[in-house]
Structures are given as structure tokens and as C-alpha cells.
Amino acid sequence: MSIKHAIAHQLVCASESTLTLRPDLYPLDDSLNTLLAQIKSAFFNRASKQYGQFDNANGTVKTLLEQWSSQDLSFAELTVQWLKQLRMAIEQDEQETEGYWFFAEEETEQDRLLWFFQLKHKHGIKLNKSIDIEASSVIDFAKLGFGGCIDLAAFAQQEQKYLTISFGFGDRALQSSLVNFIDFVDTVNTAEDTERFLEIVKAYSQSLPQEAGGNYRKKALEYCAEQDKLGELVVADEMAEVIKDQVPSQTEQSLTDFIETEQPELKKEFIPNRSALKKFQRYTGKTKEVSISFSNENLGKTIQFDPDNETLTITHLPPSLVKQLHSALRDNEG
Predict the structure, then answer these.
(1) Alpha-carbon distance 12 to 3, whole Å?
(2) Contacts of 261 (CB under 8 A, 6+ apart)
(3) 75 SS3 class
(4) pLDDT given for residue 1 in this prediction
(5) Of 213, 225, 330, nearest to 274 (Cα)?
(6) Residues 6 or more apart in contact with residue 329 via CB below 8 angstroms
(7) DSSP three-state, residue 164
(8) How far apart are CA 332 and CA 334, in angstroms?
(9) Cα-Cα-Cα-Cα dihedral of 243, 249, 254, 255, to 10°?
(10) What Rg, from alpha-carbon coordinates, does the chain have?
(11) What's the gap between Cα 251 and its chain centre?
């Protein structure tokens, strides 16, 4: 079992604030594994993650982590102090929040991680064993609140990137308070890293025969999107190996060779940014009257662009749109 410790506490900050503390750690069982797995899945599916570190040497959370690392605090004591300080910060900012704060230490062969998330319930009704109707509530993973992950090994080494945070449903008013409390500073520009890498992939694809180049670029984007869903890095060498069958056998350079020749300073591994990926997957634009979105694969095929007149010519329209246009034409003629 990869979970070493886990606990949760309830914090309500409203007209009156209450902090309900769980006295002991959770037993390490399958239900706990399932809970953390669902939290991680929801976290990895978020597009708005930020990567960085603690800004202040004497920040609250950083100080607590150092005390825990030196065994001056137990895991349970770490979380209790974390919540007490968070309660004070939210009250001081006159903000409101309600939920359960879950903490878990996870250790695998590769990593030692500290997860922290605000969990919220959704309410409903159910049929019980007696087939009576009664109120019920479960954790709403679709509305996972603020949280993140600390790479404890990287934190101990004071690397530049060891803290990942993400805001969730209903966090907008709290964002400033939570960032200040965590004392977070962004040290990684994932959008810039993704765009630079995809530009070099695009340049390499253009060096291949047209059809092969289009397929290579498509597979590269699919690979990056899949890594994003898994919460994994994109490593240039690994990606080049996975999609090497898209490169014609007579091609002299691999993607790795092309990068070393054209842009050797490029990051060879990076965190994929979902918004940046979408820019390379689709062309989009809208005004008050018109909204257009199409896959980049269609440009030059079913969609032609005339740069002189700045016009698009579209063939093979969606059947539903054709039907609507015919109906509109008949209405106008009538």
C-alpha cells in the first residue's frame, strides 16, 4: 500500500467558524486507497494547475513541513496546525468556506508525496435497505476544492519545482487568501514550454513528406494530450520513440536529432499545458455574430484559407448545419 498516513478535518468559516478535528489517522484500507485514487484522478484532469515552490523561507506551511520532517510534529499534528493556521488566515481576510480538508502521505518506489485537498459533499436522496427514502450525501469529486501536492524529496533538496496547486469549484473568492497562506510562487511557465516544444515538432513535421508530416504532428499532439490526462511529463526522447513509426524509413533525422540541431537549448521534458495544446489542435475564433472552430487537420483539405482576401472556403459541411441552412433558405423564400 502506497499510503503511509492519512487524515481529514472539517473547517467551516462563516458568520461563526468551527474547526472539527479528527483525533487519529485513518486505517490503511481499500476505501482509503479508493478515495485518494479518485482525488488524484480529478486533480490530473484539471487544466488549471500551477507549479512552483514556497516563496518565503518563514512561511507557515513551509515551517510546519520542516518541523514534521525533523519529527518535531507527527503527521496528525502537522495537519492540525495547518488547519488552525488556515482558519486564522481565512477569518482575518473575512472570507467564507466550508468543507473537509484531507491530507495523505504517499510513498512509491519513485516518489514521496504529500497530498492536501478540500473535499465537499453533494446531497441527494437514496433508497435504504428497507426501501425507504432518506437523505444522503457523498463526496463530490467533480467539485473538488483547492488542493495540491508537495514532492517531499524535491522539497528537501530545495529544488525549484516541488509544489503543485490547483483551484477548484467555488474557490474564486478564496484564491488570494489560499495562495497567500500556502505562500506559493509560480516557477514554471507550462504554456510557454508546451508552445515552444510543439513549434519545433511542427517544424520537424514540415521537413517530412506532406502526408507523413501531418500524421506525425497529429500523433505528437495526441501523445502530449494523453500525458496531460495522466498527469505525466512529456519527455522528447520517449515521445519520439513511441511515434517513430510515423517517420518514413528514408528520413535522415529523428525528432531528437532535429531538436539538437535546430534548438539544442529546448527543454527535453516539460509539463504539458492543456490550453496551449488546444491552440495547436484546433483553430478557433469568434465575434458577436460568428463562432468558428475546426481541427487543424482540415486546413488545406476541406477548409481553404485565402490570405489575400482573408476568407475561408469550407466544403463537406456538417449535415446538421446543411439541414438548418436549407430550412432557413426555404423560410426566406416563403
Answers:
(1) 27
(2) 253
(3) helix
(4) 61
(5) 225
(6) none
(7) strand
(8) 5
(9) -40
(10) 25
(11) 36
Mean pLDDT, residues 265-288? 83
Contacts of 102 (CB under 8 A, 6+ apart): 6, 7, 8, 35, 39, 115, 116, 117, 118, 119
Q: What whole-number distance in Å separates Cα of residue 3 and Cα of residue 54?
A: 24
The DSSP secondary-structure symbol of 245 reads: G
Residue 7: Cβ within 10 Å count? 20
Please name the helix (run of DSSP H) or strand (run of DSSP E) that holds residue 10, with its range, or none.
strand 3-13
Give me the helices (H) in 207-313, please: 210-230, 236-242, 255-262, 274-281
Task: Answer positive or negative: Cα dihedral of 105, 109, 111, 115.
Answer: negative
Q: What is the pLDDT of residues 18-32, one digit of tens each?
A: 999 999 999 999 999
Domain boundaries, the chain: 3-186, 190-277, 279-320
Q: In a 10 Å sphere around its CB, with 0-12 CB exposed, 13-18 middle and 19+ buried, how is residue 205 labelled?
A: buried
More confident residue, 105 or 111: 105
Residues belonging to the chain? 334
Distances (CA, A) of 223 to 196, 214, 242: 16, 14, 9
Nearest in space to 87 (alpha carbons), one of 99, 77, 75: 99
Tell me which residue of 234, 32, 12 sits closest to 120, measured CA to CA.
12
Q: State the number of CA atoms in the 13 A half-sphere of 179 facing the CB.
A: 15
More confident residue, 291 or 226: 226
Q: What per-residue confidence (pLDDT) applies to 249?
A: 82
Virtual CA dihedral for 162, 168, 172, 178, nearest 10 degrees?
Answer: -40
Q: Which pLDDT does position 290 carry in this prediction? A: 82
Q: How many CB atoms lie within 10 A of CB 23?
A: 7
Q: Which amino acid is at 334?
A: G
Per-residue buried b or exposed e for 130-158, using 16+ beta carbons within 10 Å of the residue's own CB: eeeeeeeeebbbebbbbbbbbbbebbeee
Closest by Cα among 192, 246, 185 to 216:
246
